[in-house]
Amino acid sequence: MRAVSRGAEIAVDLRRQIQSGKYLPGDRLPRLADLMAIYETRSRSALDRALKELVAEGLLTVVHGSGIYVRRRQVVRRDLLAGLRMEYAAARRGADVQAGLFEAMTGADAKVDITYDYVMASEQIARLLDVDAEHRLLVRTFRYVVEGAPHQVARSYLPAETAQRIGLNNPDDERPGVGTIAHLMAGGIAVDRAKLAFESRVPSAAEVAELAIPGGTSVFEHWRTLYRGCEPVEVSTAIVPGDRVAYEIDVSLTEGDR
């Protein structure tokens, strides 16, 4: 039997054992020599091909100097609509969301690194914010880490003059539990509407590196635009690897009934 065919057979069997729970997330696979004995093959290339296939699918991860492991998945459940309502309600009350917005929305304990940069608006962001191309913007970047692993990267785009008006000049101005809506409303910008959009796509090389995304894994990209009446005042994006999030929406179907 050709090595490529044997490699495919090994991949099928290992995949089945992982999916059945024989090998659990975090388990280390037997050594390569032991796997070759288990599968009664002398072809190292067949085994390598099978393992590379499962690494590309995101089922396995290679830890150099240690071995090959079943990949752990830090899956966070999120209801983005409920989270948006929570952020808005807290902003209207002038209250902070305890423990931070991300933690309150997901129940996950996250560490966040925040950086500020000033850039000229891209064509897409300029269109969403209804500003001229190359308008000066403040970009606030939030990098979230859950259980020691990168979880998502979010970016908020504000016209520079808006950021100055609401007192966002450097990362020290950010406070846990105070979201963008609260900052805007405290600065006299009465946000009253939000538009959400989602797409699934192949990650860029930069996103693969920044979020440690395994081969074969897509990302979800969220877009949110906040409005005061018909005027867009802020645009934000979030990139989340598809193997780290589960979305759910809880909507009342009778809301507004009399």
Automatic annotation (TrEMBL):
GO process annotations (BP): negative regulation of DNA-templated transcription
UniProt keyword annotation of Iron present: no
A Pfam family that the UniProt record links to this protein: UTRA
Annotated HTH gntR-type domain residues: 4-73
Gene3D superfamilies assigned to the protein according to its UniProt record, in alphabetical order: Chorismate lyase-like, Winged helix-like DNA-binding domain superfamily/Winged helix DNA-binding domain
Keyword Transcription: yes
GO molecular function: DNA binding; DNA-binding transcription factor activity
Keywords on record: DNA-binding, Transcription, Transcription regulation
Name of the protein described by the UniProt record: GntR family transcriptional regulator
Taxonomic source organism: Micromonospora sediminicola
